[in-house]
């Protein structure tokens, strides 16, 4: 008999698909999350266009396949992702999924982009719940902690409000997200409020293993590995024009992309397979807004790479990424943000 996760519903799920999915305890939360989880940044214009009906099919297909963890944020499309996701979840049993959203990052205008104040934080979750059509979220996260006035500000002003949410039943657990892994570790260590999960993005990929090297600093915490395609860099289609990476990383990824195209191999599949092999991560979060993307991710998760793809992966790792000195773009977005504020 298969040990089904708590989210399993016999007359909703595909039983065989759920049996096939792998699950992992999310830190010490007591919940078991699918090793592959659904990111919904693409349920907005953040990464280009999207289709509501296709998003609905993707969500339902993901959940039926055993994926049970969904991540969103008010920043994605300035609420569009949450609104779209809410429509996608309409009619689906609440027990069938865990959902995480965020507070702290909101508007395109740099002067309004971030607000970690208690007042804004309280209003943000209320609005998120309304958009999602839910009474509670499973995890409420501080979005991009590096943009806060300071870690001390988050400790004294923001995290206590998230603790209020938990006591009020509007959230079950508290998480933090961000790009600089060390800053996440510092906040986890200093916080007087219990941190249940850490979402790190683009820090475990074909060219950056920062998260894997830092896991010992997050003992007992649920680890969510997000954006392991490096926000489009590790795909045959390439990144959006706004991508913050420097020229060394972009050039290396372009070489890898071109080599994959020459060999009729999808770079994203190689990148996905690479991170799926990392057993220490509780869940790998990837954006999927089409059924084709969902099928592609599930296929890679279950079936891995063929012989040709394995050879291409070995080539790009040994000949392109091995000697790459520049592994990340930490500090670039902060510098740009400060510059915009001063204009």
Automatic annotation (TrEMBL):
Organism superkingdom: Eukaryota
Q: Where is the NADP-dependent oxidoreductase domain?
A: 35-306
Q: Which SUPFAM superfamilies match?
A: NAD(P)-linked oxidoreductase
Q: Which InterPro entries match?
A: AKR, LGALDH-like, NAD(P)_OxRdtase_dom_sf, NADP_OxRdtase_dom
Spell out the Pfam families in the cross-references. Aldo_ket_red
PANTHER family this protein is in? Answer: GH17980P-RELATED (PTHR42686)
The name this protein goes by in its record: L-galactose dehydrogenase-like
Task: State the species of origin.
Answer: Nicrophorus vespilloides
